[in-house]
């Protein structure tokens, strides 16, 4: 069957983020700032720009109330105080939060095993049987053209799809850090993923990252009985089981993907964003020169 065009996205931030401890024992990884917004807001805004109307955000039990407060608390006392000081413009970024798509925050089903597929499985009840949807890892940000929009366009080109994965070209010597996408560039049909290959053994320099367009067919493979490496439930494994349908595709996305999944890469994403968007770029460059 062909599925309805996606209007919903599942965004996941349900892991321990242990590489960021101790800060992530209190603050969800997705709440780390990029400029004056948390990483998670950049992801939600990407969805909004691409036509997504509803977000299901899968968080940890500790993170759930923090996300709910951020996306729903209108802090009228702050707005009132700024208005009394003639500084209403400072509150405008807060108002923009409440123009974002509907956001429902849930926690991961505790009966499911650890793994990046479990948060997606936890949101199954929010997805209708006849609709496609987006699944997004909160620590992957895309600057420039929204990857979600690229996936939506790919779904128009391949309305029979059971899954579509996003990919970005990386330097040949860097593909060993990622899953190399093995696909037909003409038809975009996915043959498989080669995890962290030696560069000379890579199927391509197109790396898979945390943007997927999925259909309810994925849920039959996001099952606790189908755990993989390290006893975890992996999204990539579930997608691989759909490949025999002949309706799994890969789309080379046009934006710039950067991960914020660890402190080093978070800093690189923050620096890239800052250099492109803030008015103190020259000061940053001068500091770097002084340190050389």
What would a concise description of this structure say?
By secondary structure, this protein is α/β, with parallel strands linked by helices.
**N-to-C span:** 59 Å
Average pLDDT works out at 93
Task: Give the topology string: H per helix, E per strand.
Answer: EEEHEHHHEHEEHEEEEHEEHH
- Tell me the number of structural domains: 1
Main beta-sheet annotation: 7 strands, mixed
Please identify, by name, the CATH architecture.
Alpha-Beta Complex
Let me know the number of strands.
Answer: 13
Q: In what order do the strands lie side by side in the largest sheet?
A: 5-4-1-6-11-8-12
Please name the fourth-level CATH homologous superfamily: Spore Coat Polysaccharide Biosynthesis Protein SpsA, Chain A
- Helix fraction, binned, reads 25-40%
Number of helices: 9
Structure classification: alpha/beta
- Taken from the alpha-carbon principal axes, the silhouette is globular
Tell me the strand percentage band: 15-25%
Task: Indicate the CATH topology.
Answer: Spore Coat Polysaccharide Biosynthesis Protein SpsA, Chain A
CATH class division = Alpha Beta
Task: Enumerate the spans where pLDDT stays under 50 for 5 or more consecutive residues.
Answer: none
Structural Rg: 20 Å
């Amino acid at each position: 069957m062909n599925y309805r065009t996606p209007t919903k996205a599942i965004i996941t931030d349900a892991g321990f983020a242990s590489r960021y401890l101790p800060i992530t024992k209190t603050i969800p990884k997705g709440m780390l700032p990029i400029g004056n917004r948390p990483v998670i807001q950049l992801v939600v805004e990407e969805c909004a720009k691409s036509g997504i109307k509803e977000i299901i955000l899968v968080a940890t039990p500790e993170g759930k109330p923090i996300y709910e407060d951020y996306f729903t608390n209108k802090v009228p006392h702050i707005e009132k105080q700024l208005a009394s000081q003639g500084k209403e413009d400072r509150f405008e970024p807060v108002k923009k939060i409440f123009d974002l798509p509907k956001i429902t925050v849930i926690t991961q089903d505790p009966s499911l095993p650890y793994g990046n597929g479990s948060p997606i499985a936890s949101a199954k009840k929010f997805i209708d049987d006849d609709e496609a949807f987006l699944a997004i890892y909160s620590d992957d940000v895309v600057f420039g053209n929204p990857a979600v929009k690229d996936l939506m366009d790919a779904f128009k080109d391949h309305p029979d799809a059971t899954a579509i994965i996003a990919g970005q070209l990386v330097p040949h010597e860097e593909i060993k850090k990622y899953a190399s996408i093995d696909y037909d560039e003409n038809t975009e049909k996915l043959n498989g993923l080669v995890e962290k290959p030696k560069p000379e053994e890579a199927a391509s320099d197109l790396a898979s990252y945390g943007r997927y367009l999925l259909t309810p067919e994925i849920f039959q493979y996001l099952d606790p009985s189908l755990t993989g490496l390290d006893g975890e439930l992996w999204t990539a494994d579930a997608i691989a089981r759909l490949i025999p349908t002949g309706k799994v595709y890969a789309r080379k996305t046009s934006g710039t993907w950067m991960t914020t999944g660890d402190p080093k890469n978070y800093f690189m994403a923050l620096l890239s964003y800052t250099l492109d968007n803030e008015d103190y770029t020259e000061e940053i460059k001068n500091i770097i020169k002084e340190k050389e």
